[in-house]
Amino acid sequence: MSISTSLVHSVAQLTSLPYSKWPEVHEMKSTTAAKTIEVLQQLFARYGLPEQLVSDHGPQFVAEEFGTFLKQNGVKHIKFAPYHPSSNGLAERFVRTFKEAMKAGQQDSLSMQHRLENFLLMYRASYCSRHYRCFLKLTVSWL
Length: 143
What we know:
Largest sheet: 5 strands, mixed
């Protein structure tokens, strides 16, 4: 398993599991390495340890504390080239879709949390064009 992760305007950490493209979004008030590690610990507890994590060169991802965390968990860290977001196409496409949805939701005067929940509900309920199966069924084995 591999995880792609990205930050959007220091507001949310977006993480996507590649096979199922299952998205996870965590609202973050702070994007330090310590806070990013907290979010990833939750994901690792829920889904298990990935073989690798793909990220940009953001300060939280290149911090020594972050590198130590990944090393202790046996996770290979792949950092794509700065100023070359297409290197992490999966996460970048999700970021674009997420930004568009959040912007569109502003017109409805809903809270960020409500827009986020609506977005995830619709995104997760849609069908994966590559596998023609619901994201949830690809991600949760007991369904």
